[in-house]
Amino acid sequence: MKFLLPIVLCLFGIAVGFGSSKAVPLMQAALNDECTLDTTETHPLEVAEIESISSEYLKLSNQFVVPIVRENDVGALAVLSLSLEVKEGQKEAVFEMEPKIRNELLAVLFDHANDGGFDGQFASRNNLDLLQTRLLASVREATDNQVTDVLITDIVRQNISN
After folding, report:
1. Residue 86's beta-bridge partner residues?
2. What CA dihedral angle connects 96, 93, 88 and 103, to 10 degrees?
3. Rounded to whole angstroms, how far apart are CA atoms 104 and 134?
4. 134 vs 105: CA distance, rounded Å
5. Pairing of strands 55-59, 64-70
6. pTM for this predicted structure
7. Which of 13, 47, 73, 106 is deepest in the core (most CB within 10 A)?
8. 35-62: pLDDT as tens digits
9. Torsions phi, psi of 144, nearest 5?
């Protein structure tokens, strides 16, 4: 009896895999019938321009720990790891500004926590997009637009029981 559930789950997985392998070609065929690609259209960016747009990544050395205050007590902690996408050749210059960058990022993270951004579904796509936009705006200002994106590589919230 204890082996029945794993066998049923295994058979279910095989059936779903088989069904999806048959459904994908049908969906692709339907999409190909409905969509046609206009290859005569010219695009503003040529291949040489696309190749010249490159970037480097700078992983910030330490995690960011943000207290989440509830009723004048720390009720939880949010811990984030961030990386910065910088213009090619600017990695060292941006790395030298890390203390200033961390200060700006922490200010945004504290504001986000005070606005309730780490409550509820804090990892929803909309919430993370809002946070990422705010982080990027502050870092761009601090680095004279040398940073092109802020990447949230890890995020976790740990509730603290009192």
Report:
1. 56, 147
2. 50
3. 10
4. 9
5. unpaired
6. 0.65
7. 106
8. 454 545 555 545 444 445 688 999 998 9
9. 55, 45
